[in-house]
Amino acid sequence: MNREKTTEKKWTRPVIKLPRGVIMAICLLPAVLTALFYALRYIPGVMGWATIYISAPVRGFLGMVSSVYPFSMTEVLLTIGGIWIIYYIVKSIMVAAHRRGKWKILGKRLLPILVLGVYIWGLFCWLWNSGYHAPGFAVKNGFTGNTVTSENLAAVTRMFAEKANELSLAVIRDDDGKYAEDRREMFAASTGIYDNITSEFPGLSGKVYRPKSMMYSWLMSRTGYSGMYFALTGEASINTNPPVVHMPATVAHEHAHQLGVFAEDEANFVGILACVKSGEAVFEYGGYMLGLSYLLNALAHENSGEWFEIMESLSDEVMRDRQENYDFWASQRTVNTGVGVIDNVLTTVTVTVSDAVDSVYDSYLKSQSQELGIRSYGACVDLLVEYFSVR
Predict the structure, then answer these.
(1) What is the pLDDT of residues 148-196, one digit of tens each?
(2) Among 54, 224, 228, 373, which residue is least crowded by beta carbons within 10 Å?
(3) Which of 113, 112, 134, 126 is nearest to 33 (CA)?
(4) Nearest one of 318, 353, 317 to 332, comparing CA atoms
(5) Would you call 210 helix, strand, or coil by DSSP?
């Protein structure tokens, strides 16, 4: 009996070797682009050009692509990226641990993560950080701050209080008088709220996309943030856990970022203005309520007598909505499981993490020439007072 002799061909993974020069170019390109940004960032004209001809079209394209998906691409990419980085680092350590020249091997394996990180940061610098160094919305539209006085602050605050009182009866409430507007309908309607102010501010013309609900809303709540815009996906993601009453202005704020308003105080002002001029009661009320909060905070330090009188004038509905919002955010600073020791530990961790996030974000904003850091959110008061004082 004869048997044919067969040989089995062993499959091997194809190895692609790039020339050393190509590898060096790939590794150095992001560093060069990032260094170029830092070298040019204090030249407003260059940064202004970059926001118009690089940032705006790229972010617009990314926003269009991400709008296809009903979930937040920002969260998905950050989650997948975080898991992959942890896995890759652990695997690299295990691979290098039992080989000669382990530190060299580990360095080679971790180099791609470093290069990828520099690529991402360089791209983020040109797509987003460039806007912090370019002429902002206030400069482009002639805001000077010269009309901001104690009297004007009190007058504008009183006007916002009166409008909030009026509109508090125009929104949907349940049988107990609690604010009950539908968040999903609000999200769907939000893409048209800038239509009424583009004639006054043509720079706010542009396409905005429906915001996304965040799956990590609980984490955003614990760190004290209600929404975010991420330039590398071009999408606005909203924390859906807080009371809905301030959500219209939050959405409008993130839309302002989509439209190229970079500074937080300017995005707050533009978002509030878009809301109160929208012609939609739910957005008007949300805009007046958020603006009223900032104005009252400023007035309390400037004129306590006026502050007290305006607080006394607020309707039951407005006071209820303000209190609900305050109670929610206060609750996010504590943990209540019913077990004293556990509650104390988790509350301490929560507060520490929240303060750390604030500190990091504050440092980031200041590093990008935003001198007020996270306090810049409340700086929209000057813009609100100047705008509404002359109208």
Answers:
(1) 788 899 999 999 999 999 999 999 999 889 999 999 999 999 999 999 9
(2) 54
(3) 126
(4) 353
(5) coil
Q: Cα–Cα distance between 257 and 264 in angstroms, integer?
A: 9
What does pLDDT average to in each consecutive run of 10 residues of the chain (391 residues)?
Answer: 51 62 77 93 94 95 94 94 92 84 83 90 94 92 80 93 96 92 93 93 93 93 92 95 93 96 93 95 96 93 91 96 94 81 82 83 78 66 88 62
Of the candidates 149, 96, 88, 140, the residue with the CA atom closest to the CA atom of residue 113: 88
The values of phi and psi at residue 179, to 5°, are: -55, 130
User: Would you say the C-alpha torsion 198, 201, 207, 208 has a positive or negative sign?
Assistant: negative
Query: Of all helices (H) and strands (E), which one includes residue 237?
Result: strand 235-238
Residue 112 near residue 92 (C-beta atoms within 8 A): no
- Name residues whose C-beta falls within 8 Å of residue 340's C-beta, 6 or more positions apart in sequence: none
- d(C-alpha 317, C-alpha 326), whole Å: 14
The H or E element containing residue 228 is strand 227-230
* DSSP-assigned beta bridge partners for residue 212: 237
Place of tokens 């048997």: 3
Q: Which residues of 63-94 are buried (b: 16+ CB within 10 A; e: fewer)?
A: beebbeeeebbbbeeeeeeeeeeeeeeeebee
